[in-house]
Amino acid sequence: MNNEADLERADSGGGQAKKQFPNKTLLLATCAACIGGTFQYGYNISIINAPTKPIQSFINETWIHRYGIDIQEGILTLLWSVIVSVFTLGGFIGASVGGVLAIRLGRKGALLLNSGFALLASLLMGLSYPTGAFELLIVGRFLIGLNAGIGICVQPLYLGEIAPKSLRGAMAMGTSIFITGGILTGQVVGLKELLGGDDYWPMLLSTSCIPAILQFLILPWFPESPRYLLIDKRDDIQCNKALKQLHGSESYHSEREDMEQERAALLGVKPKKPWELFMDPSLRWQLLTVMLLNCAQQLNGINAIYFYANYVFTRAGIPVEKIPYITIGTGACECLTALTCGLLVESLGRRILIIGGYSLMTVWCGLLTVILTFQEANPWVPYLSMSCVFAFILSFGLGPGGVTNILTTELFTQPARPAAYMIGGSVNWLSFFFIGMIFPFIVNGLQQYCFLVFLVICCLVAIYIFFVVPETKNKTFLEIEQEFQPLYGSKRNAGDASVGNLSELLNSADM
User: Fold this and answer.
1) 327 pLDDT exceeds 50?
2) pTM of the predicted model, to two decimals?
3) R_g (Cα) of the chain, nearest Å
4) 269 secondary structure, DSSP code
5) Which residue has the higher pLDDT, 353 or 511?
6) How far apart are CA 404 and CA 302, in angstroms?
7) 390-399: average pLDDT
8) Alpha-carbon span 184 to 169, nearest angstrom
9) Distance (Å, rounded) from C-alpha 401 to C-alpha 390?
10) How many of the other CB atoms lie within 10 Å of CB of 13?
């Protein structure tokens, strides 16, 4: 099996070229899963920025109508903070239950149920203004956060399991591409010329129903994950139908063989619960890697970059009213890099992209700290700051923004994968909430020197990946699992003496 895998990885001729692009059915299935999945995550992070003042005015008017007095500034700030941050609470809960839904309802069934949460959230947020109940905004934002949490857990699971081995990385990049596409779409729709005007915010918040409706209409036409059908449900007939529909009746056999090998290796193994992953010593390094990467994805400074973008653009002489359009440029920049990463991930591999991304982010953090320190030295210095902002966003999209979810899929076999996504997603949302809470204090306390904190984080993550995480390109899930065995000092199925050391790990990681 290893020899065949090596030959397949070494083959750069016509056989590999045939595997370079997914067929139309596989591509459409990816779009159907993503439009109601991680697209919602990016879109609903983005659109809440535009209607800040109109929603606060609505809350004040409602308060006057109910109590006859203006709302206190502190209470208004608290209510607005709850409306914004309850999204992360819903996301955390969604990520915590997403794996369970994926096991019980299937990957496709969980995604369809999830779209129902988005429809209900859109209805409640749209009704908040005509009913004069700002409480509906809180409930709606919680539900749309729940939708985002489930989507970012289940959708990559579905994509990783329907993709052929040779396209697994590129297909999994759909997660990042649709997140950044959602952010960009939200920035555009939130412009004052469209739905960002003061009178249109209920309609703006209700537009989350459109991706949900599209998923309801499109996704049922595509099959359930073949791996789920074969390994979890043990339904050979439906598995074959799904494979033929996704990969074609002539080219699905190699995927079926890989799945059969995995099923034989995992015979009698039931889907794991999240706490069982913590108790399994053979998964310790994979689990630590996923938790670290999901934590770093929120704590690597990307939020600081977006926070400082307005300041940098203002110092560069861009009029305040034009800054939203420049901000769209940052969203487009991240979206384009996600697309680029999707094109490169199968040729360059996962390791070089994510190590390179974090390494470049380390460099830009250092440069931006220096440039912001001397921002007043010369009129052209702010333009250097703008360059660093865009370079940081490019580096994030090219590596950490896209590859993190791919590795969560690839580092685990079928029984452990849903639980791994639950843990990774929960860590991601907790980190999102944590950075949202402490970020203002970091910026106010350290000013531009806050980027030194993020510099250290990016540097340490790059070092960890270099020494611990192997290349996973064009390898089966069982082969990837075996790559980690030198770290444990024994083979999984044998209680032998130590077989690995650090040099062996580095050699295997570079293969």
Assistant:
1) yes
2) 0.81
3) 23
4) P
5) 353
6) 15
7) 87
8) 23
9) 14
10) 8
Measured distance CA(162)–CA(171) in Å, rounded: 9
Q: Over the range 294-317, which residues count as b (16 or more CB within 10 Å of their CB) and which as e?
A: bbbbbbbbbbbbbebbeebbebbe
| pLDDT tens by residue, 135-169 | 999 999 999 999 999 999 999 999 988 988 878 88
Residue pLDDT, tens place only, 362-373: 999 999 888 888
Two tokens, residue 461: 């993550």
Residue showing tokens 């139309």: 24
* Token pair of 408 as six digits: 């969560």
Q: Go through the chain and tell me how many residues it has.
A: 511
Three-class SS of 79-129: HHHHHHHHHHHHHHHHHHHHHHHHHHCHHHHHHHHHHHHHHHHHHHHHHHH
DSSP notation for 132-162: T-THHHHHHHHHHHHHHHHHHHHHHHHHHHH
Helix H or strand E encompassing 179: helix 174-189
In this structure, which amino acid lies at residue 470?
A: P
* Token output for 498: 């130590």
Q: Which two tokens stand for residue 119?
A: 């429809």
Place 487 in a pLDDT band, splitting at 50, 70 and 90.
Answer: low
- Counting residues of the chain whose pLDDT is more than 90, the rounded percentage is 36
